[in-house]
Specification:
Blueprint lengths: L5 H20 L2 H17 L3 H19 L4 H27 L13 H16 L9 H8 L2 H4 L7 H9 L6 H34 L6 H33 L16 H7 L2 H15 L6 H19 L3 H17 L3 H4 L4 H20 L3 H12 L10 H18 L7 E2 L3 E2 L6 H17 L13
Antiparallel strand pairs: 1-2
Helix pairs in contact: 1-2, 2-6, 3-4, 3-5, 3-6, 4-5, 6-8, 9-10, 9-18, 9-19, 10-16, 10-17, 10-18, 12-13, 13-14, 14-16
Length: about 450
Amino acid sequence: MSFISPEFIVFFILFLSAGSLIQKFSNRRVFRIFLLIADLVFYSYFDYRFSFLLLFLTVITYFCGLKATRKPFFCLGILIPLLLLGFFKYCNFFLKTIGFSALNIILPLGISFYSFEAVSYICDIHKNRIDAEKNFILFASYLCFFPNIISGPIVRANDLLHQFKEDRKISMKNIETGIQIMAIGYFKKMVIADRIAVFVNDVYAAPKAFSWLSVLLAVLSYSIQIYMDFSGYSDIAIGISKCLGFDLKKNFDLPYLSGSVTEFWRRWHISLSSWFRDYVYIPLGGNRKGRLKQYLNLLIVMGLSGIWHGADWTFLLWGLVNGLLMCLEKPFLSVSERFPARLRKLFTFFLITLTWIFFRAENFVQVKEIFIALFTFQQGIFQPYLWSFTGFLMSVLYLLLIKHPKNGKRLYDGYYLLQDLQTVKGLTLFFIFIGLLITLAYTASNPFVYFQF
């Protein structure tokens, strides 16, 4: 049940209607149980077997969390999620690497995300950052929360768990905000990302057939596609949560306006970057043990981040290349600040765009063909794809609107440009936006990029 499917729209409308009635005529405990059932129904729609794995991990994490201040339970609570993640995601990769045939293993959707949430929960209890949750329904509602379970954001217990204890309501005010945020996410995904993907997929499937200008346009287009696709999913998840009365933190902070690769990774997929910072980079020593150890830690973290995204050598190389760029720029950050900010941002965007080639390519042969096409000025099919330019234009327009809002009160969390739907002007603009979304949406089946992770 993808967020962009008609089935989800029906599910969400029924869920909101039933949930608001339960809140009106019952108590918070009944609503929590209802929410947990809805979480499992949503997740079971993909494959009912996934729900048994999710429930197993939830039960194990809950009981280990109760005694996570003791080392054996802390280790067990960390080990089980990582072993499950390792088996389902990396077993076939390991077998193929050493020359064995792959097993018939289905990757459970979202396991990369909720496994990391389970690990962070155990770590935070062990470090006395939070107290263990004794109410199983509350804890299960946090770990199984359906808006973010498939593709994030990775939500930590201290950011969400306490909200289930509060009197959070499905209200018209929350729905008004949430629906607008969802609409922004749908526009990013279905109008910009999915239409650009048509061109990007064609070029990456046969890079030798296209001219270097077409390949360059496809490479640049993928930077826009993946940002609009993943930030669009995050927007939809945040919007759904807001409709239910829950607040998730933003997962992107205009990353392509970064002045360095290091800054980019503080603003891209914030929930994952901060997770690796707090649970891997800092425990390894961070930048406290000298420059060389800091570089090694960066390479380890970015290598792990790469392989987390996908069980393939191209993802590992993508992570290591980003880590290497972060290491190389460290000594020159103070010098680079002398250059104009726009130049630094443009150069950073160029570097990040080149690294996306490793991320998007299906194998090293494809990586090689893309780089050869770019740097040998290859001749071939020249295809100036209109939707790439439209996507760039819409992205720039969106950044300008967000960066310079006329009225700060129209922004939610300083990021989403919202209208007051209680006014004729706000309602008119909202329906015009929905009309554009319906008219321009790419309706072919095109799953979110991060579903595969």
